[in-house]
Design a protein that fits this description.
The structure is a single chain. By secondary structure, the protein is α/β, with parallel strands linked by helices. It is globular, with a radius of gyration of 19 Å. β3, α2 and β4 form a beta-alpha-beta unit. 55% of the residues are buried. The chain contains twelve helices and ten strands. α1 crosses α2. It starts with a strand and ends with a strand.
Length: 380
């Protein structure tokens, strides 16, 4: 079995809802990173075997296989195929996994895994109510027989996790402040310079709040009446795109490429769809078991900050040292452009491993429906 190498990874800044990226069509948003990725790596774009794209709200401007549309919008070769997938928030992390499968199986040599979500253009949850008269996605008799008529959504899931793991506001506010502080430091130290490209005149992630305090955070109303989480303790709605180039050993040699890392271990699991967001715990456990690694051997973790309680419960169960988690900020500061976040986290992880000289990185994220991916990469 051949190795699947990560050759390069790039992303747009994350734009705030209604911010600097909101006027861009999502095909141009993704097309911009695809074009830079191809140009920067020096590969012949015609040699790419497939483009696998994550996108959650595949409707409106993001419908009809946006991966293909973005590739063509970037002026890239027509004969290169593309596909768009949906594993909810982990869509583009799953794209990296699928790309590694094709390469490790010996069927493909160059694959781009990418993702996009223009949440200013196609709002959160818009695909769940298309006006077709079939009702809420979590419906139907079989669903009702199994789960009853309880409300099922991520906001409730986050609060249920805080309650189950005994996580209080103080702990969550500390994590949120750390997220913004780490992101601000990363900006100031130029840690994002290699991974971010300028798009639409925007060069920096727009969601970082340098003046956050616990008092300001505590003053915000809860998302749910009586709930634990408010907007400061949740990922920010955002626009963005990211892309990762993966290559086989054969392609590395043929095209004179210099890999940054290799895909070491991949996992995906199902978990409780009512709690929804606990999947990173078993996914990480399985990834560590399969890789033969312990949490202490992981130099850097990227755990998506869908809600503060998600990361804190995961860290407690896994035994992850928070000083090695989201060291350049997480989604509470940088935003969570759903379909792009998996590739965004991978982009940040691989470049930070290179910058810091770490060996192993682990990425995980919770996903709608009670799912989660976990991926271990090794710097080479």
């Amino acid at each position: 079995m051949t190795e699947a190498y990560i050759v390069d990874a790039v992303r747009t800044p994350t734009g705030r809802r209604g911010g600097g990226l909101s006027s861009l069509h999502p095909t141009d948003l993704l097309g911009s990173v695809l074009k830079v990725l191809v140009d920067r790596s020096g590969i012949d774009p015609g040699a790419v075997d497939d483009v696998i794209t994550g996108c959650v709200a595949q409707m409106g401007a993001q419908a009809w296989n946006i991966g293909r549309n973005a590739w063509l919008s970037a002026g890239l070769p027509e004969h290169v195929p593309a596909v768009t997938i949906d594993r909810q928030c982990g869509s583009s992390q799953q794209a990296v996994t699928f790309a590694s499968y094709g390469i490790k199986a010996g069927e493909q040599d160059l694959v781009i895994a990418c993702g996009v979500e223009a949440m200013s253009t196609v709002p959160l949850n818009s695909s769940g109510d298309p006006g077709l008269g079939f009702g809420y996605p979590f419906g139907g008799q079989g669903w009702a027989d199994r789960f009853g008529d309880q409300e099922i959504h991520q906001f409730r899931g986050g609060d249920l996790i805080a309650e189950k793991w005994g996580i209080g506001h103080e702990e969550m506010f500390d994590l949120a402040l750390r997220s913004h502080g780490n992101a601000a430091r990363a900006q100031d130290e130029g840690r994002f310079d290699r991974e971010i490209i300028e798009v639409g005149g925007v060069r920096r992630d727009e969601g970082v709040r340098r003046d956050s305090t616990k008092e300001k955070m505590a003053g915000l109303a809860p998302i749910r009446p009586g709930g634990m989480h408010n907007a400061a303790l949740a990922s920010q709605i955002a626009d963005g795109a990211a892309a990762v180039l993966l290559a086989s050993e054969r392609a590395v040699e043929r095209y004179g490429l210099t890999p940054l890392a290799r895909v070491h271990t991949t996992t995906v699991v199902g978990a409780d769809p009512v709690l929804i967001l606990t999947g990173p715990i078993p996914a990480t456990g399985r990834a560590l078991e399969r890789s033969g690694l312990t949490p202490d051997q992981i130099d850097l973790f990227e755990c998506n900050e869908a809600f503060a309680a998600v990361v804190l419960a995961w860290a407690k169960e896994i035994g992850a040292d928070l000083s090695r988690v989201n060291v350049n900020g997480g989604a509470m500061a940088l935003g969570h452009p759903l379909g792009a976040s998996g590739a965004r986290l991978m982009t940040t992880l691989v470049h930070e491993l290179v910058r810091s000289g770490g060996r192993y990185g682990l990425q995980t994220m919770c996903e709608g429906g009670g799912l989660a991916n976990a991926t271990v990469i090794e710097r080479v």
